[in-house]
Specification:
- The structure is a single chain.
- This protein is of the alpha/beta class.
- It has eleven helices and twelve strands.
- The strands form two sheets. Strands 2-1-3-4-5-11 form a six-stranded parallel sheet, sandwiched between helices.
- Helix 1 (about 5-10) packs across helix 2 (about 15-25), helix 1 crosses helix 3 and helix 7 (about 165-175) runs parallel beside helix 8 (about 190-210).
- The termini are far apart.
Length: about 350
């Protein structure tokens, strides 16, 4: 009796090994060969296995947290554009504390048979978070790519900014200008990117300045208005420069400094993290460390497409290097001796 695999292999004019790989959704099969096998299954009237059933016209879920950062919106725009140009339909799913949750969005996308999912800066980025939902997706071989938050227990592609290097670059720039009392203003959320940014700051301060004081590290919610309040604490500590974990925090810090009778950068130098074209038009234009949003958004989208189409993808984390963008909010400290 001719087996089902034999029938499909004969119909598609491919080897039984190729049919087995396609049926089990294994890598090592070109998109063209995969298409031949699927067409043969349909022509023979054999029911497709769940992994090969049509997926909602190439819909891809882009699941991201609510964010006011312009650079985060740039990532979304680039990823959406790349997916659309490749013939897929990106669906933006923005989750928030008071709205639809990330888990609910993932559930809806799976129920609708989405072709794949991009998860940016979500629960996977939080230290100590439950990754059961993600592990289930990986086990079911749902095409999925993560960004901004590496978890080594998940066998999937991850793309991250080198946050450790970003704060290191910022501290070195300020030290080269003559600053040694350098504060850090960072989000209070416990995530892998924030932990790395803090670690980079501490290591750079110890190496470049000899020390840092615990009171020089102030945590706040990642919004401009909370950056305003948190910056007051750093001003009272006598720092002459502030490294901020986001551009929104940096803008809040700038406002706080000027509202309290000091000058940026005459009295206090400030560096942000992220970058957008809009920052060239702040008063003064903000010095920042630029995230490689264009490159990362493109890489995330192409990697997911490769996974969907059966191409082998690199598992683990890929890091994107930051770039210092010097504008007008950093300058030497106002006195020759930084005390």
């Amino acid at each position: 009796m001719v087996s089902r695999i034999d029938q499909i292999a004969q119909q598609a004019s491919v080897s039984k090994a190729t049919v087995s790989r396609v049926l089990n959704n294994r890598p090592g099969v070109s998109p063209q060969m995969r298409r031949l096998v699927i067409d043969a299954i349909d022509n023979l009237g054999i029911e497709r296995p769940q992994s090969l059933r049509a997926r909602s016209f190439g819909v891809i879920g882009l699941v991201v947290p609510e964010s006011e950062e312009p650079c985060d919106r740039l990532f979304v725009k680039v990823a959406q554009s790349t997916l659309a140009k490749s013939g897929y339909t990106p669906v933006l799913c923005t989750h928030s504390k008071d709205g639809i949750s990330e888990e609910d969005y993932i559930g809806m996308l799976c129920e609708k048979g989405a072709a794949g999912i991009i998860l940016a800066g979500g629960t996977h980025a939080k230290i100590g978070s439950d990754v059961t939902r993600y592990a289930d997706l990986v086990a079911r071989e749902v095409p999925i790519v993560f960004s901004d938050g590496f978890n080594p227990t998940l066998r999937a592609p991850f793309f991250s900014h080198d946050d450790h290097a970003a704060s290191d670059i910022a501290v070195r720039h300020l030290k080269n200008l003559g600053h040694t009392r350098i504060g850090l203003l960072i989000s209070s959320v416990s995530t892998v990117p924030i932990r790395r940014f803090i670690d980079g700051y501490k290591a750079a301060m110890e190496r470049e300045c000899g020390l840092y004081k615990p009171e020089w590290i102030v945590m706040s919610h990642n919004r401009e208005e909370t950056g305003y309040v948190a910056a007051l604490r750093l001003l009272r500590c006598g720092v002459t420069a502030v490294v901020c974990g986001s551009d929104m925090l940096a803008l809040g810090a700038m406002h706080s400094v000027t509202q309290h009778g000091k000058l940026v950068p005459g009295d206090i130098s400030i560096i942000g993290y992220g970058d957008s074209n809009l920052l060239a038009y702040t008063a003064p234009p903000l010095t920042t460390v630029r995230k490689a949003m264009l490159s990362m958004g493109t890489a995330v989208a192409h990697t997911l497409i490769d996974s969907i189409e059966g191409e082998e993808t690199i598992m683990g984390e890929s890091l994107f290097s930051p770039e210092l963008v010097i504008r007008e909010t950093t300058a030497p400290p106002c006195s020759k001796i930084d005390t």
